[in-house]
Amino acid sequence: MTFTRRQILRNGSAATIAFAALGCGQPAHSRTANAGFPLVPDPAGLLDLPRGFSYRLFPTAGEPMSDGFMRPGHFDGMACFAHPADASKLVLVRNHEKFLSITEGGPFGEEHAMLDRLERSKLYDTTASGAPCIGGTTNVIVDAATGAFESDHLSLVGTIGNCAGGASPWGSWISCEEQQLKAGEGVNKDHGFVFEVPAAATGVVDPVPLKAMGRFGHEAVSFDPDDGIVYQTEDNYQGLFYRFIPSTPGKLADGGRLQALAFEGWEKADTRNFASDWALPTARSIAQGQPFKVRWVDLEDVEAQEELLRIRGQAGGAAIFCRGEGMAYGRDEAGIGHHYFNCTEGGRNRLGQVWRYTPSTSELTLIYESTDADRLDLCDNLAMTAWGDLLICEDGWGDQYLRLLTPAGEIRDFARNAHEGRFEFCGACFSPDGRIMFVNVQQPGHTYAITGPWESLGV
Q: What pLDDT does 25 receive?
């Protein structure tokens, strides 16, 4: 399917695609809360989709990769890129959220027997015992016409808790460490940074932490195509919302200035919307659709060990958010750009919030707050569709769904994880031509390529 120039401009990128579904047939689940599309039960018990849509399952975690290393588990955030040298191929760069406590399922096999095959300068860090940290990324080569898996290889290793990130405009994946540790806390280097992995990488990249972007519990990033500013979420119950202004546009390693969002006229704003806190001077009831003017607080010593960046930001008046996670950028019908982000446990019922920041007006708006787990249960990774719906990956307590949030505020189902493990969806992204959607299920480590009658979706 090809999109018109208007449709592409609405999203700021040809890599985002219309994502909704028109289906018929018997539903795979009984749901009255959502006006979603019926999902057809998958005979294989893996992924329920609307009629007419199908998937390819890529090789699972724990098997040998094309470079001889083992495919790491705990799949998470991901982006899709055009292959830099072969128009018939695509490249997925995929995170592996391996925290320090997770010692199994790394790329080097049992007892890290294959570690000696890796040049040591390519390993960012080791544990106090000398074992390699096993978080990082893999690059996956895919056939652009069919979505079929072709090969994969290790591309970043030695990091911790690589949860989400974001795609840069110049063809690289910004992989974010969610686990913030300092040297001596079971590791030998500081953690809580972001790392850049080019889609063009053919092996393991040099692990260079982009320290000027801050040391905190990173989750996702979103690039603004108009000015090059990078927005960042923090996965913490009292996290901040950041922006990074690069010194040199397109060269994050050159450093820059880090800031945190604050509300005009509401110091240290508590956006979590917990009714129990409304009597506090920093908290109040926030209604959906209510815009707030914001300002930005400069942050200093952004890689400091001893004092948490978010604590210093709050002291300077910055607002707090409840577990900022997925991010996406898109343009509306008027061509105005917005950055959307999820707060996984924000809201009166602690089921999730979706926020929209508009740089052109310096306004932040709560566009959706879940009141029912059957509608939206703990929103996590986020992607933009070509016509302006948001695609949300759930990380909830029951069945896991891919949900659509429409501009009218309706939640609709697109897919259900039918695997018995019921683990979270993550890393949803689209091929540049919009023909294939890719998504991960974190465990047992599945990557799916989804195709179907996109042209019938009313774009």
A: 34
Lowest mean pLDDT among 24-28, 188-192, 228-232: 24-28
Distance CA 189, CA 203 (A): 23
> pTM of this prediction?
0.92
Q: Give the number of domains in the chain.
A: 1
pLDDT in tens, 429-459: 999 988 899 999 999 999 999 998 766 543 3
- Mean of the per-residue pLDDT values of the chain: 90
- pLDDT tens digits for 210-219? 999 999 999 9
* Block residue for tokens 């018939």: 88
Q: Tell me the C-alpha distance between 291 and 328, whole Å.
A: 19
Q: What percent of the chain has pLDDT over 90?
A: 85
CATH of the domain at 194: 2.120.10.30
Domain that holds residue 170: 5-456
**Structure confidence at residue 6 (pLDDT):** 29
